[in-house]
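SAMPLE LOG
Freezer: B-3
Tube label: C17
Construct: single chain, 119 aa
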Amino acid sequence: MYRIGQLAKLLNVSESKLRFLEQQGVIHSVRQANGYRYYNEDNKQRLEIILKAQHMGFSLAEIRAVQRQHGSKEHPVDCQLLLPMLQQKLQELDQQMQQLQQQRRDMEQLVQQLTPAAP
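STRUCTURE (predicted):
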């Protein structure tokens, strides 16, 4: 079992972020008589997945939609729901990459236009 500070340090996030995620219903802690929040290994694994999903651009609503509340430790998300969402994110990334590549080409062209010719 991890106290909130221990888990936050392990995952390199703030305690307030863990409290927020708990308020949003994506993780759950156990409160002991002393009032401290305790998280088990399943909570830690779920948090790792949630943080990775957020890093990939998933919103908490999207994460909540694919979470299994009582799933196995090996599959804390519903893969049948997650797969189309991942495919959509990949399409969005491809579009963003194309836009960035076009911006880069436009910028290179402008640099060339603004660079004085060698004497």
